[in-house]
Specification:
Layout: E1 2-3, E2 14-15, E3 39-41, E4 46-48, H1 50-53, E5 62-63, H2 72-92, H3 113-125, H4 129-142
Antiparallel strand pairs: 1-2, 1-5, 3-4
InterPro entries: G6P_Isomerase (IPR001672), SIS_dom_sf (IPR046348)
Region (Disordered): 1-54
GO molecular function, one term: glucose-6-phosphate isomerase activity
Length: 146
C-alpha cells in the first residue's frame, strides 16, 4: 500500500513493506521498479497482506492494490463506514429491535473466536473515555450493572 501524503505535506510517496513482502505493481504502472502495494508471495499467486489492510486508517490517503488493480482499502473502509452508521443509529435509538424497542442489551451466543473478539473489544472500549461515559450514563439511567 502506499501513502500519497508525506509527513511534511508534500506529494512524495512513502512505501510501507512488511518483512517477507513482495511488492506488486499496479497494472497501469509504467515503471517496473516502484512498488505500489504490499503483497505476500505464494507459489501460485501474489496478493496483498489483508491483515495489514484492516489496520490502515481511512483518512491517510493510502491504497493497497489487488492483482486486478482495484484498491482493497475501498471495500474495507466502506464496511467500516456502514458499521459506524449502524452503531450510531443504534446508539441514537433510530434502529430498533424486532419489537420496536430501543436496543439496550446484546446477548452473544457462541464460543471461541467471536467471544474472544468481543472480549477484546470490551477491554479496549472500557478504557475509552467516551465509551466509559456512555456506559456510565446508561447504567445510572437504567439502574443496571455490568
Amino acid at each position: 500500500w502506499r501513502n500519497h501524503h508525506s509527513s511534511r505535506g508534500n506529494s512524495s510517496m512513502r512505501n510501507y513493506e512488511e518483512p517477507g513482502a513482495v511488492p506488486a505493481q499496479h497494472p497501469a504502472s509504467s515503471s517496473s521498479s516502484s512498488p505500489s502495494a504490499i503483497s505476500s508471495s505464494s507459489a501460485s499467486t501474489t496478493s496483498p497482506s489483508m491483515h495489514i489492510a484492516h489496520r490502515v486508517p481511512s483518512d491517510i490517503g493510502c491504497s493497497m492494490l489487488l492483482p486486478d488493480g482495484t484498491n482493497a482499502l475501498d471495500a474495507i473502509h466502506g464496511t467500516w463506514a456502514r458499521i459506524e452508521r449502524l452503531s450510531d443509529s443504534i446508539r441514537k435509538g433510530n434502529t430498533r429491535g424486532v419489537t420496536g424497542s430501543v436496543i439496550r442489551d446484546v446477548v452473544v451466543v457462541g464460543k471461541g473466536v467471536p467471544v474472544a473478539a468481543l472480549r477484546f473489544l470490551y477491554e479496549a472500549l472500557r478504557r475509552d473515555e467516551e465509551a466509559e461515559r456512555a456506559a456510565s450514563d446508561y447504567l445510572s439511567d437504567s439502574g443496571g450493572g455490568m
